[in-house]
Specification:
- By secondary structure, the chain is α/β, with parallel strands linked by helices.
- The termini are far apart.
- Helix 1 runs parallel beside helix 2.
- The chain contains six helices and eight strands.
- The strands form two sheets. A five-stranded parallel beta sheet has the order 2-1-6-7-8, sandwiched between helices.
- It has two domains: 139 residues, Rossmann fold (3-Layer(aba) Sandwich), CATH 3.40.50.2020; 56 residues, PRTase-like (Ybab, Chain: A).
Length: 208
């Protein structure tokens, strides 16, 4: 199955998450691609929207390939295959510093006038437009678990089965619309999959 675009994927996720409608869930989107989806989910479920800031740690010779991830606090997840992909300890330390600086810059851009919405005691739904390695989602869920949500849910349109198994220990519930065995990249499951830029994210979050 291919989604027409992120809006269609968000609408189908909203249908799958109807049990939380009217419970004021906190929808936390992973920038940038998931932010328009998060806005749509928040409206459909009667919840609030914010972002959870995490960054993948990039393989040295393939920046699209995640060998780990880092959250806003600096906690890192390093995949078991990181070293075989070139992720030496010295490389990882430099990459952590680079990505943490990006996270701090984005926090200043995205929510300059307010702190992040507190997830404590809330139903929290973390949304992304799809998972490949799952590295950034793992960091997002780990960061949020420490802040004591009442329920922590991972919601994505598509992910490979082995990635979903890696994610499950970090969430109370995983909602995934499809889990194809043949998986190259998230974009292959969307007919229209444009890049989302910072200006669009800032405009959406500015409406909160």
């Amino acid at each position: 199955m291919t989604f027409a675009n992120r809006n269609q994927a968000a609408d189908q996720l909203a249908d799958a998450l109807q049990a939380y409608k009217g419970q004021n869930p906190l929808i936390l989107a992973i920038p940038r691609g998931a932010v328009p989806m998060g806005q749509r989910l928040a409206r459909a479920l009667g919840g609030e929207l914010d972002v959870v800031l995490v960054r993948k740690l990039r393989a040295p010779f393939n920046p699209e390939f995640a060998i780990g991830s880092i959250d806003e606090s600096g906690w890192t997840y390093v995949a078991d295959y990181a070293e075989s992909a070139g992720g030496t300890p010295s490389y990882l330390e430099q990459e952590k510093r680079t990505q943490l600086a990006t996270i701090r810059k984005r926090r200043e851009q995205y929510t300059p006038l307010r702190p992040p919405i507190d997830p404590a005691g809330r139903i929290v739904i973390v949304v992304d437009d799809g998972l490949a390695t799952g590295a950034t989602m793992i960091s997002a869920l780990h960061a949020l678990r420490d802040r004591q949500p009442a329920r922590l849910i991972c919601a994505v349109p598509v992910a490979p089965p082995d990635t979903l198994e890696k994610i499950r220990p970090y969430a109370d519930e995983v909602v995934c619309l499809q889990a194809p065995e043949f998986f190259r990249a998230v974009g292959q499951f969307y007919r229209d999959f444009p890049q989302i830029d910072d200006a669009e994210v800032e405009a959406i979050l500015g409406q909160i």
